[in-house]
From TrEMBL:
This is Nucleoside/nucleotide kinase family protein. Keywords: Kinase, Transferase. One of its GO terms (molecular function) is kinase activity. It comes from the Bacteria.
Length: 220
């Protein structure tokens, strides 16, 4: 498998050129990939590399179901799996971002990792030309409603990573979130890595496949 480095400015230029073909509305870019691949980091780097106020992030994680609701369903331990999100709400708000004229506010929920809960209206879209939405299941085609997401995106990239890298990053993430070492290992092995396998099967649906190595992004 050949890989070639692609500078961040070239990725930005790609999006700006395509967005210019549709100046009447926002351009929606998706970044999919397994948990721990670095999607959030890439989204932030991209956003900050665009001209001032041209882009903002609409994270999929804002559509986690609340812990209270998951607990009532007996699904709290499965949090992060495809059916533990408000998929319909996510798709509806993507459509709103596409269909609402720039200048009219569109609120979007974010996710507070310390509270482990969504934050309503964590970001407000107003004049941004580009929306970057990132999450595991953007390319998923299943019975939970995720297949409707791809229809709302102008393009979707897949950010990949080696399995051992994913495992190390996820263990560290859960430990930082307050889990014990044992609980973190259980969460990673019984949930996160299973999700990574599920997401890995969606890679071929992406417009670009990228891999991060040492702070550089490689086109696969």
């Amino acid at each position: 498998m050949s890989e070639v480095e692609i500078p961040l400015h070239r990725l930005v230029r790609r999006v700006l050129d395509r967005a210019a073909e549709r100046p009447e509305r926002r351009y929606l870019l998706g970044i999919a990939g397994p948990p721990g691949a670095g999607k959030s980091t890439l989204a932030v780097l991209l956003r900050d590399a665009f001209p001032a106020a041209a882009a903002e992030i609409a994270p999929m994680d804002g559509y986690h179901l609340s812990n209270e609701r998951l607990r009532a369903r007996g699904d709290l331990a499965r949090k992060g799996e495809p059916d533990t999100f408000d998929v319909a709400g996510f798709v509806d708000n993507l459509r709103r971002l596409r269909g609402t004229a720039r200048g009219t506010p569109v609120p979007w929920p974010t996710f507070d990792r310390e509270l482990d809960e969504p934050t309503p209206a964590g970001v407000i879209f107003i004049g941004q030309r580009v929306v970057i939405t990132e999450g595991n299941y953007l390319l998923l085609d299943d019975g939970c409603g995720w297949s409707a997401v791809r229809e709302e995106l102008d393009e979707c990239w897949y950010l990949d990573a080696d399995r051992d890298v994913l495992e190390d990053r996820l263990l560290e993430r859960h430990r930082r979130g307050g889990k014990s070492a044992e609980a973190a290992r259980t969460k990673v092995s019984e949930s996160d890595l299973r999700n990574a396998d599920l997401v890995g099967a969606t890679r071929e649906r992406a417009d670009l496949v990228l891999r991060e190595r040492g702070g550089r992004y490689l086109l696969v």
